[in-house]
Amino acid sequence: MLEPAYQADVVVVGAGVAGLAAAHRLTSAGVTTTVLEAAHGVGGRMATEKVDGFRLDRIGQLLSTAYPELRLTPGLDGLALLPFAPGVLLHSEGRHHRAGAPARTGGARGALHAVRALASAPRSVPAPRRLVPAPKAPGSQAAVPRSRPGAPLGSAVDQARLTAALTRLAGTPAERLLARPELPAARALALRGLPARTIDGFLRPLLAALLCDPDLTSSSRCADLSLRAFASGRLCVPEGGAEALPELLARTLPPGTVHTGVRVTSVATNAVTTAEHGVIRCRAVLVATDARAAAELLPGLRVPEFHPVTVVHHTTDEPPGTGASLLLDADRGGPVAHTAVVSQVDPSRAPAGRALVSSTVLGPPPPDVDTAVRIHLSRLYGVPTARWETLAVHHAAEAVPAMRPPHDLRRPVRLLAGLYVCGDHRDTSTVQGALHSGHRASAAILTDLGAGGSMHTADPLPTARAA
């Protein structure tokens, strides 16, 4: 029997970061791959809008330099990640304080030294429980004084406690975190015996920003992994906007791999049907779209709930004096969960002489979101905002898949031999999760195809049908 004619070994449906990362691993293994994207550009939710010389992210999820897949994914060698100032800047009771910055005295030993130095004061109180339980060695733990009642958040005691806890967390293997009982993140924090000022003044606003989940309904395991990444690296943004990451992946694939403006209407284990080019035959299909679009092509696939996100972009010629810091509202005194003068982190996002302030609202936005955000930003930054110019308001009702417990961090990517799925809805709802799901899917495809070298020469797509 003659071997059927294939136009590609693998067709990837969707040119988000998961699909593009999988395509890189497949092409690197000699598997001819065609990526089909319905939109006229790549990146999916990692999109950046250009307005009058500004680069405005539509969602702008926070990245971490500690994400392993940013180093492991082929094609991302040239990605420039620009970090925020160390830790985060917290607004609490009308003042700012920095928290979560690495110990200046050097690693775990420096953090422990800071705690012991505070403990040398002539008073004795029980040490608070740590974020990550660790085995106690006799005589190895010194008592840490509690903050004075009514003392402002961000005191030396608060800083030492956080530094020591985050240092331990950074050194905890992920397997240990995943072995913990799974609860909603808010419930897990309440049960760990942490001081209320630590939870409400630091962990709650930080986790809300990392997970896009203001009520902390996410799995405590996912929350622990996010805190571990925060403790191990620096929060950052891609230079040039969120779109820089998927565009770099697409640009470094073999020429002719990615085809935009192609709508896939159905999939099978050996073919996809498109509205523009008819049937495209292949040996395997990888659906790498968002969760809802994937379920339309793969009936029965679970569609998660989503966290809505609204991003409001303003410009001013007099930037607030917070530098390159990520500013969180520990008081929850308005709709803004976190904000930053993004042009201080990445100058390429604003024209010379102008500042770009990007603010994120989590959950359903208020009716007049721009007015509410302006009022809140005036309190957060301590400057008038009435004359700031609004550049854009981007609302995404299905911005981030929810990770409520029980949450399987490694949902299957192989549905049938020849039919696969990937995306942040199969892993964690982060860029790291999307990239890793593409990694897992490409590994499953290579195993099933037995790929070890060049298999087929990719043929061009059939001529587009007339509208």
From TrEMBL:
Keyword check for Nuclease: no
Stretches assigned to the Amine oxidase domain: 17-446
Alphabetical list of Pfam families matching this protein: Amino_oxidase (PF01593)
SUPFAM superfamilies linked to this entry: FAD/NAD(P)-binding domain
Signal sequence interval, chain numbering: none
Transmembrane segments: none
Cofactor names: FAD
InterPro entries linked to this entry: Amino_oxidase, FAD/NAD-bd_sf, Flavin_amine_oxidase
Keyword terms of this UniProt record: Oxidoreductase
Record GO terms (molecular function): oxidoreductase activity
Residues binding FAD: 37-38
Residue span of region Disordered: 125-154
The protein, known as: FAD-dependent oxidoreductase
Native source organism of the sequence: Streptomyces griseicoloratus
